[in-house]
């Protein structure tokens, strides 16, 4: 088997604009999803006094594939960055800079805002300064919260870890033989083979390993997210897989529709934090795996067929995505905390949260991108000599 990073004779060197647009749309959808979680029946970081069951179907249809898609797109982008980096060493150094530095910044500046609000709503008696200088840095349970916490930055941690694991595999797996991509590209294998692997691993862990977020505890998540990352990483080096996606996308769409209907049925039957019986939970987890994989195939096909074209704002929007991701979660939690006591109507509250979060994200990016020392902190490449920090519509960048 070839190394995961071994170049294919057919490897594309041109940018795939469709996946750029898909990445932009996926992160935009993530922001809307997190705003929706404020109002949904499930418990989140901060909740309204009244939840809205009407949100269950759309939220339930987004949940199974939104993160799978993000890891697949990130895997593809990582492979393209590797191609342009000039080797494993420069690529690893680049990934460390572009992921670990923003992670550290977020843990020091952004996550404390969310953690303070969470303990404040549970009766924490002190102000933010006392919390940030003293209590935020503790380890263990405190006011019902576990410290330290990544909060939404767990995605950055996982992405970095998956990248490092893939680089490690590239050194170990240099055996002769055909690439797995050759096998999986035949017939309908790209549709059912990954489902068998991920579905088996996911269901084997159900009721055995707790679903607990964390780099060394979230094995039910890793058996889904890392294969999705590796799929995107491999797809960038094995364009033959695009033909397999084109051949199977209609069946994938049908499977996504059926599994989505099962998920909505389960969520509407056992609403909110109600715990379904074991058989129903297993069926829903299996449907989650099916929908996560098949929706990714469908959306990749749409990106290849309809969105693979450039636009003058694509590069700027693509660069802004990661800074938006870093700050949006803290912004939503903060503005919800400030406005929920006003008991506004749901549509007014939603409009305020959406507008305030969008404005915060835009300011965070526009200001940070213009300050040379701040750019690495928000995940952006260092300025070229004489650069202004704001990408014009025709400038270039690399996705995270």
UniProtKB/TrEMBL annotation:
Q: What's the name of the protein?
A: Surface polysaccharide O-acyltransferase-like enzyme
Positions of the Acyltransferase domain: 17-365
GO molecular function terms noted in the UniProt entry: acyltransferase activity, transferring groups other than amino-acyl groups
State the species of origin: Sphingomonas yantingensis
Q: Which residue spans traverse the membrane?
A: 21-44, 56-78, 99-119, 152-169, 190-210, 222-239, 251-270, 290-308, 320-338, 350-368
Enumerate the UniProt keywords alphabetically: Acyltransferase, Membrane, Transferase, Transmembrane, Transmembrane helix
